[in-house]
Structure formats: C-alpha cells, structure tokens
Design a protein that fits this description.
This protein is α+β, with helices and mostly antiparallel strands. It has helices at about 30-35, 85, 90-95, 110-115, 120-130; strands at about 10, 15-20, 25-30, 40-45, 50, 55-65, 65-70, 75-80, 105. Helices cover about 25% and strands about 35% of the residues.
C-alpha cells in the first residue's frame, strides 16, 4: 500500500510528523498512522502552555478500531492546538498534513532533537518494515 509521505517533513518512528516553521513546529500524525487507525472519531489534545518532553504522550486519537496515544516528537511548550479537530476529528483522515495538524510547539532543543527524527525516505523504509511484520 502506498502512503503519502511529504519530503519537506521529518517523522518520528511513532508516526508523528514535524514541520519546522521558524521558531515553532507543527505536529500531526502521518498518512500511515491515519490509515492504520481507520476512521477517527475522537481526538484528545494537550492544553496550550503545557511543556512536553520528546517521547511523552500528548494526546489520544480514537478510531472505530482502536485508541492510540500520540507522542511528542520534540520537547517544548505547546503554543497552539487545532481546536477544529475536537469537533471534526475525521480531518485527521482526510487531510493529515494540512487541516488535520494537531498542535504547534515551541521546541526547547530543536537542534539537538531533530536529528532523532527520520527524513521521508527513512520513514518510508520504517513503515514498510513495520507493515511487513503484520
């Protein structure tokens, strides 16, 4: 199965994406993640101002099949959340890299932590490896 994996983003092995925009980053879940989840029916997001550590769960996405934690790919302070997802969580399925963004973060250690993230080619390889195990 083919997944949309934009080249201009970085990815966590836990299937979140990161778009760097100046001193903020936007975070969401990948196309692979939303397809694996199926139809999303609920999204829980952190409060603005919360400080996250890389690898820490920051929210939950529930689908008709499962509930899945969503993890912070970077450490920092939540500067905005996508409140539209609270009313229309299915946007995570229809537009995971656009209108389906989850939060904006002011990273505290972007230089140090972004090297832990995968580029599109490495993430595609990771999802292929993961899919072959199922």
């Amino acid at each position: 199965m083919a997944y949309n994996t934009p080249d201009d983003l970085r990815y966590a092995k836990t299937h979140e994406w990161v778009r760097v925009d100046g001193d903020e980053v936007t975070i969401g879940i990948s196309d692979y993640a939303q397809q694996a989840l199926g139809d999303v029916v609920f999204a829980e997001l952190p409060s603005v101002g919360r400080t996250l550590s890389a690898g820490e769960p920051f929210g939950v996405v529930e689908s008709v099949k499962a509930a899945s934690d969503v993890y912070a790919p970077l450490s920092g302070e939540v500067s905005a959340i996508n409140e539209a997802l609270l009313d229309a969580p299915e946007t995570l399925n229809s537009d995971p890299y656009g209108e389906g963004w989850m939060l904006k973060l002011r990273p505290s250690n972007l230089e140090g932590e972004q090297n832990q993230l995968l580029d599109a080619a490495a993430y595609t390889q990771h999802t292929e490896d993961e899919a072959s195990k199922h």
